[in-house]
Structures are given as structure tokens and as C-alpha cells.
Design goal:
By secondary structure, this protein is mostly beta strands. It contains 1 helix and 15 strands. Strands 1, 3, 6, 7, 10, 11, 13, 14 and 15 form a 9-stranded mixed sheet that branches. The N terminus is likely disordered.
Length: about 210
């Protein structure tokens, strides 16, 4: 399934000369190899738990993260957060950022699961309904009284066969020299780029609605 979104990004043409140390294909392939070689946990209860942060926090899901074979049969690296005892409604936003240049990028596409005290899946949010935000993908979930029994939140990678098609609005800036001085001419060009799904990547997680104790 391809997600199509519009990202408005301005950049100077000269910046396009920079390139990542590795290509998206190489990064994705290396992450896939690490995932294949990883020893999957037999029980999610054995995973290290992280308390849901009260402030914006950046985290990484990589080859050092635990892996697990989830209910759909997909093996994925993941991070497990422990939710606080329900007191009031709140939201949790997860943002995954692209890695690489506009022309050659990979992206961790987060799948989010909520679990009850017995580690049974209560809700599941796949990558197909992620929203574009800046150069990344975003998911917001809401914990309401009807979800008060949810005690854990898992962020895991999506299918490695996934692909995002993003429309990028670039601005090319060209200097023009005249007898009256130098001027800069800019024009917008829309380019489409395919961003490959990766088993690893950086995420930002932020909650809203919980008091900072």
C-alpha cells in the first residue's frame, strides 16, 4: 500500500550536492539483515519496559532493540512503553523522521499497538493511515475512559515491503547578475520521491494531557 502526501519543503539547490554515506537501499538491506539474524523474544513480558515520557523525547529503534514475531506473522524490532494508571484522558503522538537526502531516503514506518495488563492487544494502528508531517510520518492515539484498561504501548516497524510516495516542493534559487547588481530568482518545482520502509529508525514521542509530576 502506498501513502501519498504533500510535503512543502524549501531548500537551496546547492544543498542537493550533499549525499548520505550510504544509500537508502544499503541502509534498508543492512537493517533487514540485522532483523533476520536477531533472536525474537518468545514473550513480550521479557522485554525491557520504558515509562511513557511526560515530555517530548527522541528514541531510536535499531538492531540493539528487541525483536518479536507479532500476531500478523511479521518479525520486527520494537520499543515497549508502560502507560500510567488511567486518571484522565490524554494523547500520545509518535513522529518518525526520514533518513537520507530527498532523492534517496529511507523511513521507519511505525505500527502502534496498545496492550492490556495481560499483554493482550487492545488496539492496532498500521502504517496505512499515518499522516505526513514535515519530512516524516506521524501517528496520534488517544487514551480515553473507554481505553482505561490499556497499560502498554508498543512501537514497531511496518512491513519492509512498504513504500511511501511523497511529493516534495523544492525551491531552486539562481543568482542573476545585472548592471544594477545581483538578484536571486527562485522557482518551485514539485518532485516525487519514493521513500523505502526500514526496520530501524528514529522516533519522537510526546504525550499531551498528563500533568508533569
Amino acid at each position: 500500500m502506498k501513502l501519498i502526501g504533500l510535503l512543502s519543503i524549501s531548500f537551496i539547490l546547492a544543498l542537493l550536492g550533499g549525499c548520505a554515506a550510504t544509500t537508502a537501499s544499503q541502509r534498508v538491506s543492512a537493517a533487514e539483515t540485522a532483523l533476520t539474524r536477531s533472536v525474537a523474544l518468545g514473550d513480550l513480558r521479557l522485554s525491557q519496559q520504558t515509562a511513557l515520557p511526560l515530555k517530548l523525547e527522541r528514541a531510536v529503534i535499531d538492531s540493539t532493540s528487541p525483536s518479536y514475531i507479532f500476531e500478523n506473522g511479521e518479525k520486527a524490532f520494537f520499543k515497549l512503553y508502560k502507560l500510567p494508571q488511567f486518571v484522565t484522558a490524554y494523547s500520545v503522538t509518535i513522529l518518525a523522521q526520514r533518513e537520507g537526502s530527498m532523492a534517496d531516503a529511507s523511513l521507519f514506518m511505525p505500527v502502534v499497538l496498545t496492550l492490556d495488563e495481560q499483554f493482550r492487544t487492545r488496539r492496532s494502528f498500521d502504517e496505512k493511515s499515518l499522516r505526513n508531517r514535515g519530512s516524516g510520518l506521524e501517528r496520534t492515539i488517544f487514551i480515553n475512559p473507554t481505553n482505561a484498561d490499556e497499560r502498554y504501548l508498543i512501537i514497531r516497524g511496518a512491513s519492509l515491503k512498504g513504500m511511501v510516495v511523497q511529493s516534495l516542493q523544492s525551491t531552486q534559487v539562481q543568482p542573476i547578475v545585472t548592471p544594477y547588481g545581483m538578484f536571486f530568482y527562485s522557482n518551485g518545482i514539485e518532485v516525487k520521491a519514493e521513500v523505502r520502509s526500514s526496520a530501524v529508525g528514529f522516533i519522537e514521542i510526546e504525550q499531551k494531557g498528563l500533568a508533569d509530576h
